[in-house]
Specification:
Helix content is about 40%, strand content about 15%. The chain is an alpha+beta fold. α2 packs across α4.
Length: about 100
Amino acid sequence: MKNKPRLDSVLHLLEDVQFSEDDVTQLLRQLNVCKSPGPDNIHPRVLKKCATELTFPLFLLFKKSLSAGRLPDAWKEGHVTPIFKKGSRSDVGNYRPVTLTSVC
């Protein structure tokens, strides 16, 4: 069994992550509006169209999340959907789970 990384070493790695408001704006503008929203029901189209207005609040939220080493609870939720791969549709082994999480 592998040793788990120590929490302080993980937090140290998170401190090394650097990004700017411009980075957040750029990522919001690159969102694929054909993707589905997650459990929060915030559609990527809304995030993309409101990129200018949402950049600063999301930037602050991302910075706080990284400094605390925690994600908001709502971002940990997901909708799991079985996706058929191939073979018999009655065999549960022929499905793979796909989880939709918050776009943010």
